[in-house]
Amino acid sequence: MVLGFASIIAYPAQTFFFAIAGCKLVQSIRSMCFEKVIHMEVGWFDETENSSGTIGARLSADAATIRGLVGDALAQTVQNLSSILVGLVIASLACWQLAFVVLAMLPLIALNGFLYMKFMTGFSADAKKMYGEASQVANDAVGSIRTVASFCVEDKVMNMHTKKCEGPMKTGIRQGIVSGIGIGFGFSFFVLFASYATSFYVGARLVDDGKTTFDTV
């Protein structure tokens, strides 16, 4: 009951304060980035990766990504770490042998999460670059819409934009395959349920040997 009342207060407060921190950080980052951009040399904007469309996409997407990391992700991380610490304390008091077994399997689960994040980060970086190129095509077309309409090249511009979007689409398909079948959900669930099975087996052996009771496990 005490934990229930504490959760009623802690969860809304956690979401509220981390959301405020994330929004303020995004505002600060966007302001600093924009201030830095407008003071760059003119030749810097001639490079493809520094075009107006790409910069706009970066200011929007990258800041939003940081908002997710600082806000929701960081709040979830704090909550998970707290749950792990409290769970380990309770498990150690109830049955320290089983607690050590579960603790020994945590590095394997952490390694699985690390590899998954490495794969997903690589795919996301490639897709972000490709979407930046597509955004630049759309930005140039809208900015010069009178010229586009005068020469009747709307279909050509649409084809260019479609071709630029094909790369991110293929990257998304590969990401789905990797996350669903490969080192993503398939392997993750295997590691998770293998850990469950090992814990249940060790707990059953401890009960069978009389070292603990069924209620404790």
Automatic annotation (TrEMBL):
Keywords: Membrane, Transmembrane, Transmembrane helix. The keyword Transmembrane helix applies. Residues 1-217 form the ABC transmembrane type-1 domain. GO terms for cellular component: membrane. InterPro entries: ABC1_TM_dom, ABC1_TM_sf, Type_1_exporter. Coiled coil: none annotated. Pfam families: ABC_membrane. The chain crosses the membrane at residues 84-111, 177-197. It is found in: Membrane. PANTHER family: ABC TRANSPORTER B FAMILY MEMBER 4, ATP-BINDING CASSETTE SUB-FAMILY B. This is ABC transporter B family member 4. It comes from Cardamine amara subsp. amara.
